[in-house]
Amino acid sequence: MGSTAVEFKNPATTTLLELVKSRRTYYGLKAESPISDDAIERIVEDSVLHVPSSFNTQTSRVVLLLKEEHKKVWDIAISAMENLVAAGVLTQEAYEASTKPKLNAFRAAYGTVLFFVDYESLATIKEQFAIYADKFDPFALESNAMSQYLVWLALESEGFGANLQHYSPLIDAEITKTWGLPASWKLDAQLVFGTPTSEAGEKTFQPLETRLKVFGK
């Protein structure tokens, strides 16, 4: 399964799928960019405008942080983790050996894209379609995840490496305060990007036969 050679009607399909295959997680990043900041902004802008959402609710919110502004995110995360050490939740040894080097590696990158969901904006549609009310929050998160993936693919296509992080809720309050963001924006993920300084790890796959079934072919 999956090994048969096929031809697509549109060559762009092959290009898209090759991008999907080549996307990797890069942890070794430096604060350099192969493209202009305006080009980075366009990638993020198009994801905000064109990624679909359930009932066209458009619940995703995104903040692009570059250079010194990007570093602030990881200073906040470092401070949050140091607070955990002080509270005895995380040992000093574990922090120094693993957590701190990882956070400093994120800080050394070029930028961070913060992805949020505005769940409060769903109040009206939840009333209109009460039978689906408990589904709209998960639907919003699905749309946000599509935005994350699109931005990741596009940045990698332009020569960046990236990795996706989840430091909520530890950094949420300070992120909101630092950039004066609406309280209704709930942080979901942080996409760190920069020029790769090392190779990505090897991809491994579970058997496709256990994950995909095709009927009617």
How much helical structure, as a percent, in the residues? 40-55%
Molecular shape = globular
The CATH architecture designation is 3-Layer(aba) Sandwich
Output the radius of gyration: 20 Å
Strand element count: 5
Structural class: alpha+beta
Enumerate how many helices there are, as a single number: 7
The structural domain count equals 1
Task: Please give a structural write-up.
This protein is an alpha+beta fold and 217 residues long. Helix content is 45%, strand content 16%. It is globular, with a radius of gyration of 20 Å. The chain has helices spanning 11-22, 37-50, 67-86, 92-107, 123-128, 136-157, 172-179; strands at 29-30, 60-66, 111-118, 161-165, 185-196. It has a single domain (27-196), classed as NADH Oxidase (3-Layer(aba) Sandwich), CATH 3.40.109.
What's the gist of this structure?
The chain has helices spanning 11-22, 37-50, 67-86, 92-107, 123-128, 136-157, 172-179; strands at 29-30, 60-66, 111-118, 161-165, 185-196. With 217 residues, the protein is of the alpha+beta class.
